[in-house]
Design goal:
By secondary structure, the protein is an alpha/beta fold. It has one domain: TIM Barrel (Alpha-Beta Barrel). Helices cover 38% and strands 14% of the residues. An eight-stranded parallel barrel has the order 1-2-3-4-5-6-7-8, surrounded by five helices. It binds 2-phosphoglycolic acid.
Length: 269
């Protein structure tokens, strides 16, 4: 018998796509096409589309997320958006995405402060980690992900992260070489890494050996490969980029995630 049932989550990261004029329609279409029991659905549009997507999803159980937050609550930070500013607009946020690490030179230490700021403001937070291709080829993938986790989560008190909310804090394992390339990781490789991630969470001080923390896979997830990931018991869903802009793709991805959710529910029943 499985002691706990981790939730199954499918989050769409729209990145720098959509406008306030068209984001609501896309969100509404995806919502209608992804009504599957047991799957937590989240859409993360650009900041300027948050209000439109929130309005379009009102009355549904699809959550709205931001793609990033600043590590401070207020201050002289031109162009930045803080976690408390998102009140009423978003209930989730992504932090530490590899595109932010790359383009905004975000460090693990800074990303850790963002996690604390986001959780402090009550946002459900997805922390992204993942190695570059050179790291994987050199056999350093685990070392890199381990360093990212310790660097961002090590300094804080793990008790503050998830709290009592089973989806308050989750991790997305996103190998950088798989993001936007059409070249996904193998399900078994992702599962190996996610096992290592949970071991690191346990070493950092997360309770239950890290087993309570949902860990998603991200990187070229599509209807054609979602099965490979959802078949792995350690993988709790997907962070979807390009395919999350396509309703047909999202419908198929969430439908497959729903099979895992149903199987988990049956296993604890
Ligand atoms: P992708 O992006 O699905 O387009 O590879 C995933 C992500 O960056 O979260």
């Amino acid at each position: 018998m499985i002691r706990t049932m981790r939730p199954v989550i499918v989050a769409g990261n729209w990145k720098m796509h959509t406008t306030p004029a068209d984001a609501g329609d896309l969100a509404r279409t995806i919502e209608a096409r992804t009504r599957v029991d047991g799957v937590v659905r989240v859409l993360c549009p650009p900041y300027v589309c948050l209000a439109a997507v929130r309005d379009a999803l009102a009355g549904s159980d699809v959550a709205v997320g931001a793609q990033d937050v600043h590590h401070e609550a207020t201050g002289a930070y031109t162009g930045a958006i803080s976690a408390p500013m998102l009140a009423g607009l978003a209930t989730w946020t992504i932090v530490g995405h590899s595109e932010r690490r790359r383009d905004a030179c975000e460090t693990d230490e800074l990303i850790g402060r963002k996690v604390v700021a986001a959780r402090g403001a009550g946002l459900r937070t997805i922390l992204c980690v993942g190695e570059e291709l050179a790291d994987r080829e050199a056999g350093r993938a685990r070392e890199v992900v381990d360093r990212q986790l310790w660097g961002s989560l090590g300094p804080a008190d793990p008790a503050t992260f998830g709290g009592d909310d089973p989806i308050g804090f989750s991790i997305a394992y996103e190998p950088v070489w798989a993001i936007g390339t059409g070249r996904n990781a193998r399900g078994s490789d992702a599962a190996d890494m996610i096992g290592a991630i949970r071991a690191t969470l346990a070493a950092i001080g997360f309770g239950a050996g890290g087993e309570d923390v949902p860990v998603l896979y991200g990187g070229s997830v599509a209807s054609s490969n979602i099965d490979e990931f959802m078949a792995e018991p350690s993988i709790d869903g997907a962070l979807v980029g390009g395919a999350s802009l396509k309703p047909d793709e999202m419908a198929a991805i969430v439908a497959r995630a729903g099979l895992t959710a149903a199987a988990r529910a049956a296993a604890v029943a």
